[in-house]
């Protein structure tokens, strides 16, 4: 896993300049940049930055009215873009009570300057569902209308971008679970808590007093993500050394160990809630990054960075498993532990390394997932069903199967929101899993085996 860790550090170093820290700069002093004023802790704001994309560089659009409505259609806030094109609308009430609520942000086209218009004329409102207690940014691109772009096509492309980012993180978590299952036969229901552990470690480093800087650049969150990867690896070793290895030596069956993993999951989840709290959390940096506009698509540097890191780690891990002596030993243990031991392979050492690697992958996935959408103490538990679905769909115990299954599940989950409410998007992924397994029980890349 040292090679994988080096890849994480290298890619973080490469993409860090593309993900600048969001320093709180008062709008009046921002010189036209998309920077927002500070607001008291405990408040949630919906904000945005209006720019006329026809100018080079894009120029602020002042005097545009924006309103926010609740689910009943009642206007609960309004603002007019200032000289820097910024609007900032606070939401009243306890942030925890806002979680799960939906708001509609509308722009008044009649207040746009003469000769200006929305690039997507149909996008006069944006629906936001709060899944975290952090501020939400809304974008209304202004300029010449996008020729020949249909609403559904643009939405599908935008969802595909988000789906690829989510799928890459799901693939890391699924690969870790598949590695552990392949070498030990354990269906680990506490794997979701390994994901949450990584998010909490990164958050803890992020909240340390002061900030970590190199050359004036704040890299606190980057250090937090690297720290999550390393500490999660140590936590995986501790899991195996303190619990699973003694159980294996006692000859405990896989069913009993699976039940133990359920108990461990409940214990860790309550422990996380005690120390991290029940509310959603966000890292201090990169919460409102200005996106890049590529044609009709809006892509943030943060999404690009997370996707590249995840893909580098996935490729590094698969290369390690395919081409190194350790990887060959791991595959031998997964195929036949008794025969591997007879040929001189230290089976317990291989299993310990797999636990270290699997936990490190899960922890890194959790830290990056928290970076993209925030997190709470149940983030891994909520993701666990999709992780299992990805592993089973791709084929239990296969390296590439977990990755392929994760990308199918992740993309399908995001794209189905074109046709069904977002609350039901996981249902479609699980229905897809059922259909595939009815046709091919061993999964897409698994080997058919006779049982009994």
From TrEMBL:
Transmembrane region(s): 159-181, 217-238, 250-268, 304-323, 350-371, 383-412, 418-439
Q: Mainly localized where?
A: membrane
Q: Name one Pfam family in it.
A: BPD_transp_2
Annotated membrane topology is: Multi-pass membrane protein
**InterPro entries assigned to the protein according to its UniProt record, in alphabetical order:** ABC_transp_permease, BCAA_transport_permease
Which named protein is this? Branched-chain amino acid ABC transporter permease
Keyword annotations for this protein? Amino-acid transport, Cell membrane, Membrane, Signal, Transmembrane, Transmembrane helix, Transport
- Highest taxon in the source lineage: Bacteria
Q: Which residues form the signal peptide?
A: 1-23
The cellular location(s) given in this protein's UniProt record come to: Cell membrane
Taxonomic source organism: Nocardioides aestuarii
Family according to the record: Belongs to the binding-protein-dependent transport system permease family. LivHM subfamily.
